[in-house]
Amino acid sequence: MTSSNGCWRLIPLLDAPGGFQMAADAWLLEQHRQGLTPPSLRFYTWSSPTLSLGYHQRRYPRHWPEITWQGQAIPWVRRPTGGRAVLHDGDLTYSLVSSGWHGRREGVYRQLCGFLQLGWQELGVPLGFGDRPPSGHNPNCFATATAADLVTPTGEKLIGSAQLWRKETVLQHGSIRLCPNQHLQAQFFGPQVEAPHLPESLSPRRVATTLTQAAQDWFGVTFTVQPFSPEEMAAINARATAWRVDPEQSWTRGEGLR
Fold this sequence. Notes:
Blueprint: E1 7-16, H1 18-33, E2 40-46, E3 50-53, E4 68-69, E5 72-73, E6 76-78, E7 86-88, E8 91-99, H2 105-122, E9 128-129, E10 150-151, E11 157-166, E12 169-177, H3 182-189, H4 204-219, E13 222-225, H5 230-240, E14 244-245
Parallel strand pairs: 1-2, 1-13, 3-6
Antiparallel strand pairs: 2-8, 3-7, 4-5, 6-14, 8-12, 9-10, 10-11, 11-12
């Protein structure tokens, strides 16, 4: 399994609202599918605590829309990929868009996760895949570490990822739980999901830098650093509203989910 292009675009670490970040991932996928941009890797953070739902997720606990933080409503977005809800606050998200992979999609997924394992090994935290079957009832992405998730040696889920394919082009992105807000997490998901135990020196920038080098080594590619241009920012911003969610109007709150 190999990528078709040895020169990838690296988009520098970017802090922005969730609607922009989801629109950017979907836009990069479509641009690369059309042959307008090279494969890309980027890391980003969320400018305010934000809840993201999987593309097909329609059920969630009835109290979620009432949760606020520092007197403000929590923004909601939906991801272009599937999976369950993720509260983004204190995490680092990676996004990879590429093409030219061969073999079963499960194998491609594990191959793409290889750079994450290589980078975290360098950071002193070896990661393996989880071994629990998916649960059909818990709306929290980080409640269970399945075979698609990367976990620490003590079994804590550190990275949850998902894919979206458009013909031969794939978007894979995922949340890396660096320093989750446990109080806010508990309001959504309860106290049962512990934060991973990581070295205190692991800032988002340091992790992104280490994982970028790991991606270069793992995929055998070179990176060209290229931030979003003003024209690209405008095109993405024009699409950002489509990824925002009104929890009271757009989704079915799950009866009996607590």
